[in-house]
Amino acid sequence: MELAGKSVVVVGTKRSGKAAIDLLLKHGARVCALDAQPAKDDEGALGVPILLQTPENLETAAPDLIVLSPAVPYDLPMFVAARTRGTPVIGEVELASFFLKGPVIGITGSNGKTTTTALTGHLLKACGIEAQVGGNIGTAVTAMVESSSETQWNVLELSSFQLETIHHFRARISACLNVTPDHLDRHHTFEQYAAAKARLFETQQPGDFAVLNWNDATCRDFAKRTAAAVHWFSSAGDAPGGMRLHGDELFWDGRPFLRRSQLPLRGLHNVENVMAAAAIARLAGAALESIAEGVLTFPGVEHRIEFVRSLHGVSYFNDSKATNVDATLKAIEAFDGGLWLILGGKDKGSDYGPLRQPLAKRAKGVLLIGAPPPYAYAAAPLIREALDGVLPLFDCGTLARAVCCAREHASAGDTVLFAPACASFDQFENFEERGRAFKQLVAELF
């Protein structure tokens, strides 16, 4: 891609947008940024003008190329109109793909992406294979370009927002962990959401590899849409080859290499994450024995069923990354019972009904949080409606009140689990800030 002298508009000036701007400037592009909430203080730091994100400002800029940050919807009318005028509209990941050196591992899924991506990077490094990790986790892909090399794997966590705009981007090894309803406020339908995920596999070529969950119907459909060689994983032990769990043993192509009881991560969903990461590492050239050793030294990831502390016999766990119902279900299933669950935040068009049965079986009560009226996307009223009559519900509003309420009601042997099933944007900047707030509140209990 030739950028020198080209006029480029970058939409969104957070982490991915800033990294895209840096890359574009290094390649000689003339850059202007648009943002829904432009901060003039950022102009000096970014080195480009920042204007309000409006159709008029975009049209006035008359760019040769538009680069969208992941948080910016691809189907906004202003970008549809730009494409109609013949202006290319791409995402930050697609931009990076023209300059990134070395083979790419792309990991997607509704849940488990971050843990699997971090574990994959950990396994490769533990096995003596060069790798850098980024994407939706940590470092933006455009910021990885400078440190990339032909001999180093680029291990990328990729969201549906990042994948819906790819065309040139290609993963040497791709993986999908699962596909369950999420981000329907953005993608509108489950089919459109799944189609965005499918782009990762549709851009692969013969000689590439795809690692897919045999127990997920949408993942099985992806196998029909890729030219890559498919390798399955299955926690039910029924995959036709690849990685599978049978009893307490994990097998790769019929060869046992690790016991589930040895794993440092809690929950069956994390067994699947381990299987996917191990399969990817094996396809990247790692030895099974080294993979097994690497799994046992993995420290886990912050905000993913993260143990915070035990106080008066009550255990507190932070799973702030559980931003959808399926992630919360998996977190609930990782515990035997005695749960006090903190739920709520910004609704994403979710159905909370599937929480009823597991909560009736394993939980003692639910503490609801979220921005008060007139906030239009409050999940708490919808959760209350879905769980009415199942178990005690406490309207707490703030996370601080929810933690205090949990402290008052939980008894020795119980577990307080913060797995909110919702986005954080009603009261927090992101799920990381929300998780840190929970940990601080728990640390202050006495």
Short description:
Helix content is 35%, strand content 22%.
3D architecture notes:
There is one protein chain. By secondary structure, the protein is of the alpha/beta class. It folds into three domains: 7-94, 3-Layer(aba) Sandwich (Rossmann fold); 100-296, 3-Layer(aba) Sandwich (UDP-N-acetylmuramoyl-L-alanine:D-glutamate ligase), CATH 3.40.1190.10; 306-443, Protein-Tyrosine Phosphatase, Chain A (Alpha-Beta Complex). The chain is built from 18 helices and 20 strands. Strand 13 and strand 14 (255-259) form a beta hairpin. Helix 6 (113-126) packs across helix 13 (288-296) and helix 12 packs antiparallel against helix 13 (288-296).
Can you tag this structure with a few keywords?
single chain, 446 residues, alpha/beta, Rossmann fold, UDP-N-acetylmuramoyl-L-alanine:D-glutamate ligase, Protein-Tyrosine Phosphatase, Chain A, 3 domains, nine-stranded mixed β-sheet
Radius of gyration: 22 Å
Question: What is the CATH architecture descriptor of the largest domain?
Answer: 3-Layer(aba) Sandwich
| Helical stretch tally | 18
Average pLDDT score: 96
Count of discrete structural domains: 3
Q: Termini distance?
A: 58 Å
What share of residues is helical?
25-40%
How would you describe the shape?
globular
Class by alpha and beta content: alpha/beta
Q: Strand arrangement, largest sheet?
A: 7-8-6-9-10-11-12-13-14
Number of strands: 20
What is the CATH superfamily label of the largest domain? Answer: Mur-like, catalytic domain
Percent of residues in beta strands = 15-25%
The main sheet comes to: 9 strands, mixed
Name the poorly predicted regions: none
CATH topology of the largest domain: UDP-N-acetylmuramoyl-L-alanine:D-glutamate ligase
What is the C-level CATH assignment of the largest domain?
Answer: Alpha Beta
